[in-house]
Design goal:
By secondary structure, the chain is of the alpha/beta class. 39% of the residues lie in helices and 16% in strands.
Length: 345
């Protein structure tokens, strides 16, 4: 099993390794869960039909292009099992469950590695050369990316999609953090003939304990995934809350205001600390690089202050000098900045 953030369960510790919206559940989610109590003596819909219809209406797309999952993670592994690509090109460093999912089905894994010394900038020409050399069946891209927080802009992304299409390859794009950026999903910009867009509801809606995610692709891919999908992987609570929350405009405005304000604050303050490099982010977290000591050493000192951050040593091309810091509520962010200044500066 891969290592992830969110393992520090002490309620007294502010866990900055968890990149979940810290403002918590909306009132609509809480009420929808309460209202669902009397339905747990019934089986949930096997394919989540009602929820799929709600998402299709919300996104203005065909219901048949959507598949529901027990979190985005289930859909990563489901896609790998259903498609079984021979060659997979992963744009790294990124979420390590992609690699594990495709390795389990015997895929040959290739990496297009973005350089931290070059601000993890994506070079389209280099990528085109790599595509021609490897000739992958599937390209995996996380956008915005975890853990770098980088976002490929729309024009460049459309160029990448065209390169992949011309090579008769398929793009598996994880957009689990797209709501935290100011950009729209690729599903509004392109057709789905060679794309699957993966979406998680965990981070944005602060519901990691209720696993729910979905993917959008062409009918052929969705039908193939449905063939391999186990029945009843989604529970009643998860299915019932989605139609209520996706239309919650007040909640969206609240999160948008929080992330815009706090992301600017955190980037400004982290950038002022000596001996640490901060990479600009379009998500709800920042990747940083320590100059003189490891993230594990830093965590030992942070724990004395009831704080904890994500050390990124298990990401491809990163080591224990790289840390990921989630954006929390303003008072927590202020405390962390002050502690980091005292330890690192």
């Amino acid at each position: 099993m891969n290592i992830h953030g969110g393992y520090y369960g002490d309620n007294n510790v502010v866990d900055y390794s968890v990149n979940i919206n810290p403002l918590g559940l909306s009132s609509h989610i809480r009420q929808a869960i309460i209202d669902s109590i009397d339905e747990i003596d019934k089986y949930p819909e096997i394919k989540g039909t009602t929820t799929r219809n709600a998402i299709a209406e919300y996104l203005h797309i065909d219901y048949n292009k959507i598949i529901m999952g027990n979190g985005a993670s289930e859909l990563i592994y489901l896609y790998a099992r259903a498609i079984k690509p021979k060659k997979v090109l992963i744009i790294e460093p990124t979420f390590n469950e992609y690699r594990r999912a495709f390795e389990l089905v015997g895929s040959d894994i290739y990496d297009y590695m973005l350089d931290s010394n070059n601000d993890f900038i994506f070079n389209v020409d280099e990528f085109a050369t790599m595509i021609n050399k490897v000739n992958p069946d599937v390209v995996v891209l996380c956008n915005p990316n975890n853990p770098t927080g980088k976002l490929i802009d729309e024009k460049e992304l459309l160029d990448i999609i065209e390169i992949i299409r011309n090579n008769n390859s398929f793009l598996f794009i994880d957009e689990s953090f797209i709501e935290f950026s100011d950009r729209e999903s690729i599903i509004y910009k392109s057709d789905y003939d060679n794309i699957l867009s993966l979406r998680s509801m965990t981070k944005y809606y602060a519901i990691p304990g209720i696993r729910i995610g979905y993917a959008v692709s062409n009918n052929k891919v969705i039908n193939k995934m449905e063939e391999y999908k186990e029945p009843w992987t989604m529970n009643t609570f998860a299915l019932n809350i989605v139609p209520k929350i996706i239309q919650d405009i007040e909640f969206h405005h609240k999160i948008s205001k929080w992330i815009t304000t706090e992301r600017d604050y955190m980037y400004s303050q982290l950038s002022k600390i000596n001996n640490i490099t901060v990479y600009k982010s379009y998500t709800n977290f920042f990747l940083c690089k320590l100059k003189y000591f490891s993230g594990n050493m830093l965590n030992l000192q942070l724990l004395e202050k009831n704080m904890y951050i994500r050390v990124c040593e298990n990401f491809q091309s990163l080591d224990d000098r790289f840390i990921r810091i989630a954006i929390k509520k303003h008072e927590d962010n202020e405390k962390l900045i002050n502690v980091l200044k005292n330890i690192i500066d």
